[in-house]
Amino acid sequence: MLHFTCDSCGESITENRFVVRLEVYPAHQPTGLSEEDLQPDHLQALAEELSSETNIGNDFEPPRTRSFRYDLCPRCHARYVQDPLRVAATKRLNFSEN
After folding, report:
1. Side-chain-facing half-sphere of 90: CA atoms under 13 Å
2. pTM for the whole thing?
3. DSSP alpha helices (H): ranges in the chain?
4. Which of the four pLDDT bands, split at 50, 70 and 90, describes residue 91?
5. H-assigned helices in 14-98
6. Within a domain: residue 88?
């Protein structure tokens, strides 16, 4: 039998279990189109780029994607749905101004 523990509070989950999956990746920043981008002969430029040995694998950088998975008990799930980024929880803290 599988045993699950809440990743937020650490309690054993014996009843309903909720799974939170997060994926973090860089946002795509599209650049504006120029007149050169609208020129009709892109096949020739692509063929030249593919045949060039100097461009193969030199500047490839894999995307910085991270995936996370958490198991939550019903109580922590209710709190998570109300404030997923815990913004309200951090605003409630009253630090002294030393």
Report:
1. 5
2. 0.60
3. 42-51, 74-82, 87-91
4. confident
5. 42-51, 74-82, 87-91
6. yes
Q: Which residue carries 């795509």 as its tokens?
A: 28
Q: Compute φ and ψ for 38, nearest 5 degrees.
A: -90, 0
CA distance 95 to 32: 45
User: Residue range 90-94: average pLDDT?
Assistant: 69
In a domain, 49, yes or no: no
Range of the domain at 2: 1-24+64-98
> Which tokens is 56 given?
């193969």
In a domain, 32, yes or no: no
N- to C-terminal Cα distance for the chain? 52
Q: Are 11 and 73 in contact (CB under 8 A)?
A: yes
In a domain, 12, yes or no: yes
Both structure tokens of 53? 């040995």
- Domain count of the chain? 1
